[in-house]
Amino acid sequence: MGNTVLAAVACAPKQTELREFPMPEVPHDGGLLRVETVGVCGTDVANYATIQRPRILGHHVVGFVAGIGRDAAERWGLREGDRVAMEEYIPCGQCRECRQGRYRACAFTDSRRGGLRYGNTPIDVTPALWGGFAEYLYLHPNAVMHRMPEHVSPVEAVMTLPLANGFEWMDMECHVRFGQIVVIQGPGQQGLACLLAAKALGATVIVVGRESSRKRLELARQLGADAIVNVTREDLLDKVLDFTGGRRVDVAIDVTSGGWEPVKQSFEIVRRGGIVALAAYKHQTIPEWDIDQVVAKSLIVKGLRGHSHQSVEMAIDCIASRRFPIHLLNSHHFGLQDTDTALRTAGGEGEPNPLLVAVSPGLGGR
């Protein structure tokens, strides 16, 4: 390790600067991670457009432990050289939410309220290295890490957190099981993660998208979708009724980033006693929505976000099993010097047809 760390700093809305920071000392209860690869998340894209206090973005991080304090090594069960996948959360470990296993809801890791979170903590918070778009990342004493098998390629490894969301939502929240039928609205990174999780659980899966997502719909088929529906050309309810013999589906999850139509459709296509899961912010109200459908059909409605320790472990096991061609999800791979292009590409303003965009600090070198 040298004396400085090169990082791509989001310094203003949609503006990135490469800056050098002092290499921090390794505390007895913390450590340093040499970043291997970082996946670009939709949250990164959204934050990049609204930056006020400069920060290092990137929280889908995989890397190698480059330095570790004595107490941290004992507590984490790790040593220098170990390969790990990071979670974005830096929880307190003591609050009610943490002790119930819901540390994603811990106030200490809510960066919107001044808490610490990887990929969204300003650089004026010492020691500045809180994001993955850097050569090294600071390992806070409360950092949450998972061992990553060596045989998993970097661009597969950075699918860990999206896939963890998929397992959290499909398995632990919606209790999807063998033989059930699931509709996933939105074939983006999160939607395809839900597809992989649902297929791993033995479900029959229909993936829904628009003409603008035609390539992603075809990718969904390659990943194991039993049917795809292009709602620009096809009526979703008609296709669902035809596919299910009039039964409708057990679970409908909306992960689209657009308007409210997929939400209303989800209530129409789910069976009596089924589950409607909502996992994407709309930032708008739904006009003329018939809430009586929930009562009449005895529906369960769930709002979903984030993942748990267990679902991350499930994701890593799934990736390591090589059951699915997860490498197909990687659409673009950039070096640290091209972080701005990576963020713009993930947001649909850079190179065409983005899906899983990755940044590797070692790609291209200093």
Per-chain topology:
Elements: E1 4-12, E2 15-22, E3 31-39, H1 42-48, E4 60-68, H2 70-76, E5 83-86, H3 96-99, E6 136-139, E7 145-147, H4 154-157, H5 160-173, E8 181-185, H6 189-200, E9 204-209, H7 214-222, E10 227-230, H8 236-244, E11 249-254, H9 261-269, E12 270-278, H10 292-296, E13 300-303, H11 309-321, E14 330-335, H12 339-346, E15 356-360
Parallel strand pairs: 8-9, 8-11, 9-10, 11-12, 12-13, 14-15
Antiparallel strand pairs: 1-2, 3-4, 3-6, 3-15, 4-5, 5-7
What's the Cα radius of gyration? 21 Å
- What is the terminal-to-terminal distance? 13 Å
Q: What structural class results from the helix and strand content? A: alpha/beta
Taken from the alpha-carbon principal axes, the silhouette is: globular
For the secondary structure, the number of strands is 15
Give the SSE order as H and E letters: EEEHEHEHEEHHEHEHEHEHEHEHEHE
Provide the helix percentage. Answer: 25-40%
Report on the architecture of this protein.
With 366 residues, the chain is an alpha/beta fold. The chain has 12 helices and 15 strands. Strands 3, 4, 5, 6, 7, 14 and 15 form a 7-stranded mixed β-sheet that branches. A 6-stranded parallel β-sheet has the order 10-9-8-11-12-13, sandwiched between helices. The two termini are 13 Å apart.
